[in-house]
Amino acid sequence: MTQDGPDIRRLFRPRSVAVIGASHNESKIGHKILSNIVSGGYEGRIYPVNPKGGEILGIEVARSMDEVEADIDLVCTCVPAKFAYDAVMGAGERGAAFNLVITSGFSEVGNIEDEKRIADCAREHGMRLLGPNIFGMFSAASSIDATFGPGGIRHGGVAIITQSGALGLAMIGKTAVESVGISAIVSVGNKVDVDEADLVTYLMEDDITDVIFMYIEGVRNGDRLVEVLKTATRKKPVIVIKSGRSKRGAVAAASHTGSLAGSDAVFDAVMRQCGVLRAESVKEAFNLCKLLPEISIPKGENTVIITNGGGIGVLATDACEKFDVKLYDDLETLREVFDPATPDFGSTKNPIDLTGGATSKDYTCALDAALAHDDIAAVIALYCETAVFDADNLAEMIKDNTEKYRRAGKPIVFSVFGGRVAEQGQATLTKEGVPVFGDVYETVSCLGGVYSYRRYLSNWTDTIHEEDIDVPAIEAVIREARADGRRFLLAQEGRDVMRATGIPLPETRVSRTLDEAVAIAEEIGYPIVMKIVSRDILHKSDVGGVALDLENRDEIIDAYQAIMRNCRASVPDARIQGIQVSEMAPAGVELIVGARRDAAFGPIIMFGMGGIYVEVLKDISFRAVPLNRAEALEMMKEIRAYPLLLGVRGEERKDIESVLDAIIRLSTVIRRCEGISDIEINPLMAYEQGQGAKAVDVRILLSDVAGGEADA
Ligand code: COA
Q1: What is the structure's pLDDT at 472?
Q2: Is residue 623 within a helix (H) or strand (E), and if so which, with residue range?
Q3: Running DSSP on this structure, what letter comes out for residue 107?
Q4: Residue 223 has what pLDDT?
Q5: Fold of 589-702
Q6: I want to staple 360 with a disulfide (CB 3.0 to 4.6 A). Which of 201, 367, 397, 437 is the partner?
Q7: Is the CB of 78 under 6 A from ligand 1?
Q8: 3-state secondary structure (DSSP) of residue 431
Q9: What is the mean pLDDT of the chain?
Q10: pLDDT at 541 over 90
Q11: pTM of the predicted model, to two decimals?
C-alpha cells in the first residue's frame, strides 16, 4: 500500500469519468452505473466505453480508452474478470488517476494471481485502484453516483466506507428509508490498493462529512489505520462495525473476503484506544449516524431523564447504568428546577416523572427548565403513548425542543413508545431528519456512545511513554539464540532480556558445585528454589529437576544431590551446566503481561490475571503500542479482577505503579526490538504498595529472520 500517487480529491471530486463496459443492455451493471451517474446530477464529463460504440443514454460511446480524454480522473471497470487486466492497462496507459474495479472473481474466490496482476499494473501506471469486487462509490461533493445501487441517494453528512458489497448496497436503500444524508459511500471490497486509511485521511478533512461510518471485515496495515483513526476521531466521530466477531463469523468473513479477520478482542481494544465507536449492529450504527451530526457533545456528565411513565423511566435508568450515562443526583437542585413543571404526585428525583397526565406543554415546560440549567448536560426525554396527551402536537413538540437544544448546544435524545400515535410521530420526524428513537435501550445506548466519545476527547493526549531499556544487550541475546538455530530464548536468556529491560526478577545465580549452591543460597536467603540448567532438559519438573521451598542448608544439600541423581537417571547424555539457585518469589497477585506483533495491528500489549488459569478465565485486555501510562492504567482497569489490585477484604493495595512500569517497559521492548515477536511474563507477581512486582517466569519467541511473526 502506498500513499503516493494522484491527489485523492480527484476520486471524490472527479471532473471526468469513464465507464469501461458501459452496456447497451439496461439490466447490466455497466449500464446501471452509467445511468446512476447521469441521473444523479453529475456535471463532469462522462465517457461510456464499449467496443460496440454507438450511444447509451444519449451519450456517444468511446470504442476504447484511446478515444477518452487523457489523465481522466475516474474510471469504473465493469468488464468480466478475464478482460479486467486489459481494461485496467488501457485506463493506466491513458493516465487515469483512480479506477473503481467493480469486477468480482479475484482473491475473494482464491484468484490471488490475477488480482495481483491488476494491482501491479495499476501501480506501474501510477493509478490508484479501488477494489476489485466493489459496487462503486458515491460522492455528494460532485453529485456522482458511480454505484449500481438504487439511486436517489439523499445528500448529507455521513460518509460510509464498506468492505461488504451486498450489505453496502442494502445500506444505500436503508439510508433513504431512515433519512440518513450521505456525503460519500465507498466500497473497498478486496482492498488491493486503496483502503480505509486512505479514505479516512480524506474524509476527516472533508467539510461536508460530519461522521464517518466503516463496515470492516478484515484489517490489513492496521498500524497505519490506527495512526489515521487517532487523528480522525479528534476531528469528527468515527463509527465502526466489524463482522467476524464470533469464531464462526471470523471463518466466514475470512473465506468471504479473502482477508484475515484478526482477533476480535484486539480489534475492539484498539478501536477504543483510537476513540472509534464500535456499533454492535447496523441499526445501532445508523442510530449513531443519525444522532451525532445533529447534537453537540455534552459539556458535562449530568444527565436528566424526563418521562411521563414511571416504568419506562426505570428501564432508562437501568440502561444508563449499562451504557455508562451518569444521572444527575443533586436532589435539591432537581427539585428547584423541576418543581414548577411537575404535578404534586409526580417526581422531581431523576427520572423526572411528569406522570401519565402530561401534555406537550408540560414536556416543553420541563425541557425548557432543563435547558436553562447549566449543571444539566444532557436530557433523555421519554414519551409513552397516553390518551390524555395531545397527540397532534407530539411531532411538533419533539421537533421544536430538538431545535432549541441544538441551537443551545445541549444534547437531547427522544424515545417514543406506544401504538399508532407514537409510530406516526416517529415516522414524521424521521422523514424530516429529526433523530427520534423507539426503544429506550437504543436511545440510551446512543447517548452512551456520545458520552464515550466525549470522554475520549477530554482525556486525549499525544503523550507516549517509553522507558530506557538496553536494546544492544537484548539484540546480543537474540543474535546468540539465532546462531544456535533457535526461534525461542532459554530461561537464562529470558532473564538476561528482563534485566536489560529493567523489570525486576527474583534473584538467581547458577551454581556448578554443591558448595557453590549452598553459598549462593545463604547469600540470597531462604526460601530457595533450585532448577537444573541443561539445554537438553526442557521439561525440568518432569524429570525431577526442580525443588521448591527449600528452607535451610540441609535441604539445599539434599535437593542438589536429588536433582543431579534424577536428571542423570532420566537423561543420561544430558549436558548439565549446573543448578540454578533462586530466591523463591513470595506469593503475590499473579498477573500476566505480554507483548506481541499482531498480524493486523503490529505491536500490541496484553495485561490480565496470570497463573495457570489465564487460558480459562481469559480476564485480559489489550492495547496497541506505543501507549502512555494513563492508557496502560485504563487497560489494567478493564479486567474484571482489577479490584484485587486495589486490595479486597482488608488486604493492602498492590504496587500498581510497578505493574504499570512493567507494562511500559515491555511495550518498549516490542517496539524497539524487531527481533522479538512474542514476550510474555507469567506470572508477574505483584506485591503490596512499595514492594514492587517481579517477573517470575518469562517466555520469549523470536521473529523470523524476515522480521515477521514467530510461528511457535
Ligand atoms: N472494454 C469495454 N467494454 C467491454 C470490454 C472491454 N474490453 N469487453 C466487453 N465489454 C462490454 C461488453 O460488450 C458488454 O456490453 P454490451 O452488453 O453492450 O455488449 C459490457 O462490457 C459488459 O460485459 P459482459 O460480458 O456483458 O459482462 P457482464 O455485464 O455480464 O458482467 C461484471 C460484468 C463486471 C458485472 C461481472 O463480471 C461481475 O464481476 N459481476 C459481479 C460484480 C459485483 O458483484 N461486484 C461486487 C459488488 S459488491
Answers
A1: 97
A2: strand 620-624
A3: G
A4: 87
A5: D-amino Acid Aminotransferase; Chain A, domain 1 (3.30.470)
A6: 397
A7: yes
A8: helix
A9: 92
A10: no
A11: 0.89
pLDDT for position 245:
65
For residue 73, the CA-to-ligand 1 centroid distance in Å is 21
The reply to whether ligand 1 has any atom less than 6 angstroms from the CB of 700 is: no
Ligand 1: atom nearest CA of 165 is 48
pLDDT at residue 228, rounded to an integer: 96
Residues 35 and 23: their CA atoms lie apart, in Å, by 10
CATH fold of the domain at 6-134:
Rossmann fold (3.40.50)
In the predicted model, what is the mean pLDDT of residues 439-464? Answer: 95
Taking the centre of ligand 1 as the mean of its atom positions, its distance from the CA of residue 136, in whole angstroms, is 14
Is the Cβ atom of 89 under 6 angstroms away from ligand 1?
no
- Partner residues linked to 609 by β-bridges: 591
- Rounded alpha-carbon distances, angstroms, from residue 411 to 113, 159, 401, 407: 52, 22, 11, 10
72 CA to middle of ligand 1, Å? 21
**Candidate CATH numbers 3.90.1150.10, 3.40.50.261, 2.60.120.10, 3.30.2350.10; the one for domain 153-280:** 3.40.50.261
The structural domains of the chain, with segments of one domain joined by +, span 6-134, 153-280, 299-459, 507-583, 589-702
CB of 479 closer than 6 A to ligand 1? no
The DSSP secondary-structure symbol of 108 reads G
Q: pLDDT (tens digit, 9 = 90+) per residue, 564-610?
A: 999 999 999 999 999 999 999 888 999 999 999 888 888 999 999 98
Confidence of residue 153 (pLDDT cuts 50, 70, 90): very high
Mean predicted confidence (pLDDT) in 359-381: 97
Is the C-beta atom of 699 inside 6 A of ligand 1?
no
Residue with cell 453496502: 168
Q: Ligand 1 center to residue 1 CA distance, Å? A: 27
Statement: residue 615 has pLDDT above 80: no
Find out whether the beta carbon of 35 lies less than 6 Å from any atom of ligand 1: no
Q: In whole angstroms, what is the distance from residue 185 CA to residue 173 CA?
A: 12
Phi-psi label, residue 155: left if phi above 0, alpha if psi -120 to 50, beta otherwise? beta
Q: Which fold has domain 299-459?
A: Rossmann fold (3.40.50)
Question: From the CB of 79, is ligand 1 less than 6 Å away?
Answer: yes
Evaluate if residue 441 carries a pLDDT over 60.
Answer: yes
Beta carbon of 131 within 6 Å of any ligand 1 atom: no
The answer on pLDDT for 250 being more than 60 is: no
Q: How distant is the alpha carbon of residue 361 from its chain centre?
A: 44
